[in-house]
Amino acid sequence: MSDARLLILVLALPFLGSILAAFLPTRARNAASFMAGLIGLIASALLLSFYSTLATGQTVRHVAPWLPSLGLDFTLRLSGFTWLFALLVLGIGTLVVLYARYYMSEEDPVPRFFSFLLAFMGSMLGVVLSGNLIQIVFFWEMTSLFSFLLIGYWHHNQSARDGARIALIVTCLGGVCLLVGMLLLGHIAGSYDLDVVLGRGDIVRAHALYLPMLILILIGAFTKSAQFPFQFWLPHAMSAPTPVSAYLHSATMVKAGIFLLILLWPVLAGTQIWYLIVVTIGLATLLVGAWSAIFQHDLKGLLAYSTISHLGLITLLLGLGSPLGLVAAIFHTVNHATFKASLFMAAGIIDHETGTRDLRKLSGLMKFMPITATLAMVAAAAMAGVPLLNGFLSKEMFLAEALESQSGTLLDWALPILATLASMFSVLYSIRFIHQTFFGPPPVDLPHTPHEAPHWMRLPIEILVLACLVVGIIPTLTIGPLLQIAVRSVLGDRTPDYSLAIWHGFNMPLLMSVIALVGGVLLYRRFGGRLNAMTNSPFIGRLKGRRTFETVLAALIDGASALHRMVSTKRLQVQLRILIVVTLAAGSIGFLTYGYSVGNGPTIMLDPIFAVLWILGGASAIGAAVQAKFHRLAALAMVGVAGLSTCISFIWLSAPDLGLTQLLVESITLVLMLLGLRWLPQRLPEFWPGGRTPFNVRLRRGGDILIAVAAGLGAAAIAYAMMTRPEPEGISRFFLEQAYHGGGGTNVVNVILVDFRSFDTLGEITVLAIVALTVFSLLRRFRPAAESVELPVQQKVQNAFDAGREDREHGDTAAHYLLVPRVIMEWMFPIILTCALYFLIRGHDLPGGGFAGGVTASIAILLLYMASGTRSVEARLNIQPVRWISVGLMFAVLTGMAAWLAGYPLLSTYFSYLELPLIGDMPVASALLFDIGVFSVVVGTTALILIALAHQSIRTPRAPKPEKAPDKIPDMEGDT
Amino acid sequence: MEAVLALAIGVLTASGVWLVFRPRTFQVVLGLALLSYAVNLFILAAGRLRTDAPPIIGKDVVDPTLYADPVPQALVLTAIVISFATTALLLVVLIASRGLTGTDHVDGEDDQ
Amino acid sequence: MIQSPDLPLWAAIIVGIFVLLGASITLIGALGLIRLNSFYERVHPPTLGPTLGTICILVASITCFSTLQSRPIVHELLIGLFVTMTTPVTLMLLARAAVYRDRKEGSPDVPQE
Amino acid sequence: MKRILPFPLLSATLFTMWVLLTGFSPGHIVIGAAVAVIVSRVMLALQPEPSNIRISSAIPRLAGLVFVDILRSNIAVARIVLFKPKERKSGFIHLPIELQNPYALATLAVIMTATPGTLWLQHDARNRRVLIHVLDLVDESEWVDLIKNRYERLLMEIFE
Amino acid sequence: MQHLIVAPVVLPIAVCAVMLAFNERRRMLKRALSLATTAALMVIAALILWQADKTGVPQVYLLGNWSAPFGIVLVADRLSAMMLCLVSVLGFTALLYSFARWDRSGPRFHVLFLLLLAGVNGAFLTGDLFNLFVFFEVLLAASYGLILHGAGEERTRASLHYITINIATSLLFLIGVAMIYAVTGTLNMADLAARMATVPPEDLMLLEAGAAVLGIAFLVKSGIWPLSFWLVRTYAAAVPPVAAVFAVMTKVGIYIVLRLNSLLFGGAWAETAGFADNWLIWAGFATIAFGVLGILSARTLSRVAGHYVLVSSGTLLAVIGMGGLELTSAMLFYLVSSTLSVGALYLIIEPVERNADEDDIIPGLEEPVFDDEYTGAIEEEENEKGIVIPGSIAVLGGGFIFCTLLLAGLPPLSGFIAKFAIVDALFSGPVISAKAWILITLIILSGLTTLVALTRAGIDLIWTPAEDSPVHLNVTEIVPIGLLLAACLVSMILAGPIFSYMEAVAADLGDASLYIDAVMNAPRAGEPEMGEAL
Amino acid sequence: MNWPILALAITAAQVLLGLAMGCAVYRVFRGPRAQDRVLGLDALYLSGMLLLLTYGIQTGRTLFFEAALVIALLGFAGTVALAKFLMRGEVIE
Ligand code: NA
Ligand code: NA
Q1: ipTM confidence
Q2: What does the pLDDT read at residue A199?
Q3: Which residue windows does the record flag with biased composition (Basic and acidic residues) (chain A) (predicted)?
Q4: Is the pTM above the cut of 0.90?
Q5: Which residue of A has its CA nearest to E104?
Q6: C65: domain range?
Q7: Is the distance from CB of A528 to CB of A435 less than 8 angstroms?
């Protein structure tokens, strides 16, 4: 009797060991292997303690809530069958650990190897012990992952990398199919709990979604178990270290698919479609694997194909759908694990000792390593199905079941023949394996001189071979009870009577066995000598699984790339066209649904001047559109006209603040554009060969005009529809009513900006600050195009003129040009600043405000720069824009936070009208303080942008030009 | 007035969109400038048109029907500031791009 | 159409006349932009607007608001001052730039330095 | 006094400007004074060329003269625009000039340019001459005389 | 602590104001300030989450003490709180990562970074449509600065496209807001939702057109096909920590779509219910498909990551369109998981690729032609070699594998649960619709293609022997990646409680009246509870 | 009293100013040289300023005064920049 919670320990131990091993020093080979072995032993011992419980036919469960809302609990479940399988995983795992200790070189980072191996072992145990469909998939995918790491362990080899990648992709492909299949299964059965699902086989098999679910789950199982046509990944996985191959391809990884099929057999099996699919695939795999194995020259390759073939055999057994088939399948799973593990290990020893696995080079090793040779011969005999070995027993059962098949299809009579044929192949390649390796003349040209492997390295093989013998000779005493528990746990009441006796008398299966054995020997005698010369397996060799896989993958990638190029673009213009067209389409949905209608609200009479204004403005907009390419300055002026029309419209339509602000922004934007224009290349008129604009260009332009007109019409139509509708009873009334009494200002727009919606304004000045800093840092790294580095042509000409005249000095032309304007503009500086302060102060009550004031102040600075030049201004004024930004932001935020002191939310304002002696009523609103913050940020921002741009003109190219070096390094940071 | 303003918005939009589709960075910047005029007027239009009714109130009881809707105006004001900032940034980026790539094509490479 | 402000007749007459006068003078100046043939000639007439045109309209404005609010409202003078200070700056810079450009192109109409 | 109000004329201008803009409330007179004092100190940093304007009767005389000239030339230019008289001829004049004070030059430039029909182009400090453009260039010497005798003299009186 | 709600926005702005007062040379001070700020943001977000979950009703903050719908309100409900947590975790880790050297490849990194967080937080919190625009602009402006951080040709080119498209999109945003205001007269999202039912039928065309135009603006940000061609390139051009936080930017668009779709078209009002659903579904499908193609054809890891961002956006949008409680909660889990994982991937790409090509450490960071005359001393690009930690390849490889698992939706990290939950929810109805099958297929395809692409790249970059010199890793590079992966691992282990939270979020979203009531009845400070509505 | 004749006079003045703006825009369009366009733009701004002043008179509000003030005081910044650009090839040296 054992506590179900021990299962957690069984499952957790390998993972804990894995983590521990990962942190061991790189050279700690002994410690890592010892720990791994110990974990295997402890876990096995723990598992064995469940024997008595399971022998009574019970199932052990441990459930911990994990994701209850999705019906997902962390469930550990141990039944007879899973117990047997888990023992296999742990037992062979422990032996592999022992073997690997001697196999792995000291040069390798062995602890990492054991870390992966233990994690893999844990994942495999997870698959086996899970009591929940999704949990199975969870661990299933983890086995894919860790097998990937194990196969790719020697990742300096190209083949290891490729093998790992192919295995991962194929098995993960299966994994996702399995996930969906399991989800469907859970959906059909109404639960993801395995025990519940196992009880609802009838419902499942009758469900409409049975077939898609079955196919998805089978794809999962078949990819994992290397069934045809997914078998190709397995031979490539042979680039893994041999202990890994021994483990993955005997008891674990590839058996996971078999495990799953057995586990779900009660639910899924028994239908015609199950029979057809599973038997066909199993049979194909059996034959393809066996046939291919014959022609392998690599020891491990031969074993790999043999594995495929045996997995096909088991699958075939499961496909038959008969309880006896299931018994045979479970039995053969165990048997195959023992002999295949030992064979892989033997192959590893041979490889290790001789330095090659090539059957064509190996020969006569019997003399050098007699013990290993003996062990390998016994194991190979088991694989070939020689009597008195375990392989014989399960193969007899298989042949018997092959005869029993009653599906009413062609398969019924083909199965016995093909099964015998496959057995014959099996004998053939087993003989080849043994004969070419151990017999014949002594080997020549081997990389190493072979000798017997260390005793401890042979020990795992000895144990496994002993198991083959013992099970083969006295099955009822050894495997019998275990098999019984396992079978009963799967089949329950349907458990058939079966006999594990060695001798069942003379019957058909025995005859088939004999035919296979004799046939195999004869075939080897007849053709064995020619095998070494063949480079390819006949017939099947043409099916290059891997090449097909890579080709398909490459084609997929190429196709995807081509398709991707077709449905994407790197060009900005195309992206913008798509954006506008999509917007037009999206915007018109509403109109298509409900129709377009003009409203019946009040409208206002047309002012003739307004019409005049927009005749001019509209014409200018179109003019700008036409001129922008070749006459930039003209286009800029025309945009300016449209801008002025907009400003005046704002004022006309009762928005004086907007008009004011837009006017200010217009000025500064114009200067910015001109500052930028300096660095753009000259545009010369287009010249198309032949003098005509090409058709595709005209087509594109036509399309653009069409989209532009559509957008314009759309905007106009929507605007008109909006304006003609009666106004909804919205929030604006509140602002008008509360602006003075609640906000302390009569300019409602400003009160909204600095009080009602001051959070917007805070965000807005943040944007300004960010943009300024970005511009600044971008321009620090600015590198003009080669032809723009030099002075503008005007200045060059004027400098040359100054230099060429006796009565002039360098810079006279500019100085004369600017003399009078400079005087006037410098004296306007304080005047404009005063104006800026005026806008700031009055904003709360009348049009103006922090932004208008700030822009005004920065225009003052700008004028100064234009009049006097950068160096001259900066020699006198230290503007420190960043500091203005910093102070302004702080001011705004602190003003907002001040409200916290009074227990009000951020940005709550305070205002009153102070009665000051002499001065009279003075509005004191905290919003004004906020506006001062805005002012400061705007000044800093605008100045920073303008100055940073202006500075580009006076930066010195790297190529030394000492006379142009700047007088002084200006400090933009505000730190001296 | 409404019809004139609607047409104005339409013409500004159409010109702006056309320019935004052009391959030279400067054209795109001008296009965005025109579009932002259009959008600002559009937002103002969302509050319906009023002449001679600026939302600057007296200090006594206020009759809201006498004033233009102040909300769109506040929104436009914010929008003006933000679009000014982003236009400035775009301008700087385009001259930086021109410096690095040697062309003023929006894709940083001439297609012909 | 927007109603006119609430003014006594004498003020209305003054305002009306000066507004029309200012606008007309400005228009004449602007017409110069169309009618004159060379750039250097066209530079001159636009100053009609900033000078006399502005003065007339400012007079109208001062009259209007001083009457409306029954106290002298003379801040319009600032506009006059600023326009007088700034317009010459732009015109002289612009004209000088034009001279430079024409000279560079070898135009015979502009004097050599 | 010089330390508090380095530029008294500027401060006065700013103060007047503030009061004109905001109205004659006592509060704004205080603020205006403060603004006038503080902002005018910005000019200290800019280190403008010193100006020593002599307050004399020359200022109103100049103002009157300019006003009348502007009126006259407005009419003259309007006539030219409207009727495009055939005999008219426009042209550039190089004008020798004694003035050196930049403020005087600036004032002259503003007057010339603000007066329709004449346009100040630039002052050549080395050769002491200005370049102007005249819309109706009947007689070059007449213009030289006008500027030298009417404006330059008054300006010398005020600025030098 | 009622002011907690506003802290995620105001704190970074205030800290930036202070930081700007210091010279750029005070690097350690700025690092300390910004790290402390992001750490504080994590704590604040956690507190807000705790508060939101505890009370179960949206917490409303009346800015300026003006009641809704007149003033701007911040609303912290379960959804916003969750998004705040997500962005703060990503922000903290990316910032830490930047200390490896990225914060020195240009000036003012910390300010821009913090302001980006402020913008994103503002967008998640605000309950006002126009304020949303403002915070979109804040985050966009900061993102412009950050994408340009480090300068170089590719960054400049990419940002030119990025900025242009976003400016155009912002204009669309404004148009949409204006149309909605014209019809409803309000900007407050709750008020808007409440007024939906009273919109006269003849105004519906404007309302829907406005919503559609607005939707385009959000969808551009969330990376929908065919409006997202800029995204991959932009993200790839950005320096790694920036790209990592950009992973959350598409989620801002998604968040808004989710929020507005549930508030305005959530079915409270029959006329326009489900207005956007079908479009979202098909656009989402197209986006996933496009992302899958992109992942397959990607030649660099950052392009894989970028296309994965698209895949995740497409999945989220399609699922939003399909709706339903279970699907929504699964979608929210996926949102969190995919954001964290793609953030981790962006962080790990650079060290992984550095291994492959040692001499191209900071691509595009060329010397300027001009002498730097501003302050100097900022960008002495000492290519500081990290500490060679033992097994740096192993750490890198492990991290990369974890990222691969996350993105491909494989166990044992949260990607698997997310994928499972979505597919499970799709199967949960009595009939599995064709759309569900398409989505499942696309999800699976995207997982597989991600696996194929990342394995290929990972094998080439990590396993292929090129290790003449060991990879230099900084602790500040490993720790953030580790933190993000740990977050994914934790969200796998704690999937149960997280899922019940997500279900609560989904339930909140399903009931618009909860949000509307909380906002519209939020009391002003200094007034009795349920103060008179103004 | 609201005198219709005054309203008419102001409207007429506005139309005259509008025509003046039209002349200026004509110059902006026609060129032929950049300086002509700049000159046109400058004249346009001045006419616009006067238009705003007449609008102030028309409405009897002083609210539009500041906009006019801005044009008077700062409108020349753009023109100066354009002129400098033509003359020197860059706006700020
Ligand atoms: Na041999
Ligand atoms: Na003149």
Answers
A1: 0.94
A2: 92
A3: 960-976
A4: yes
A5: A777
A6: 9-105
A7: yes
